[in-house]
Amino acid sequence: MNFLEKLKIWQELINYKLDQALPAAQLRPEQLHLAMRHSMNAGGKRLRPILVLAAHDIFPGNIDPVPAALAIECIHTYSLIHDDLPAMDNSDLRRGKPSCHKAFDEVTAILAGDALQPLAFDILSSSYSEDPQLALDLINILARTAGSEKLVGGQMQDLLSEGSTPNEKTLSFIHANKTAAMIEASLQMGFRMGCEGQDMEKLSLIAQVGNSLGLAFQAVDDLLDVTQTSEQLGKNAHHDNESGKVTWISLKGEKQARRLAESHSENALQALVLVGGETKFLRELIEYMLKRKS
Ligand code: GRG
Description:
By secondary structure, this protein is mainly α.
């Protein structure tokens, strides 16, 4: 099976399992469950779940990585729903569909995002209860990543910096926490499930891969914002400029941003070599993400 075939199979698996894991649409209150489903099923790339599966396969064990993959997608989707709200990024379009507060209303979108957070931890605690240490480790990685020092902190700093020109250090803080932390956590969670004993020390190496990959992902995201159309992206293009957001492009220009994406991607590939194990798919994924068009 080649890279693209495997990617498609995993995306379909995640979509199918997410559908099963979400509360049924007809459960009361229907509007809330419909809104959760609207955003979860709107067609994201499922990058973070796929990173969980790929990292698990480096040193595969007997543990099913799919629930952990679903959990991280719940947190990611909640963050997108809340990011799109008028009080934050005020975006009408997400994953090619009306954003949650446009399809429903603001209150429903806030609560749909709220509900996806405990769902992530419910999935982890119930799916890995036979190995309590594993369950705790996965919950710990995800909870810390989603909290005020990483995902939420990165978002807060991003919003605080709007309309001003943050220095490079602040921009790096935003990208490391708003974007790279979740990518790092995906790889750490997947790797934690596969590795045993001697491989545990490699957890910090896989975190380095995730950090570099996440920074590359953000630089590519900034480039796509200026080079692609809204139809191609499934979200509003040229949004960074219009909302006064500072990116590497506004700070250093398109050429430098492209160079930055390439060097972070290269760093990720180099750190991956040190991890060892079966990394072919992950390597191809890192290269694919650099060339992605949406
Ligand atoms: C509300 C706490 C909170 C955080 C929001 C996700 C986020 C933080 C902001 C979205 C804006 C943005 C450009 C973030 C950085 C890159 C990113 C996370 C892009 C979206 O991820 P993709 O491209 O999306 O993987 P899909 O829809 O494919 O899952």
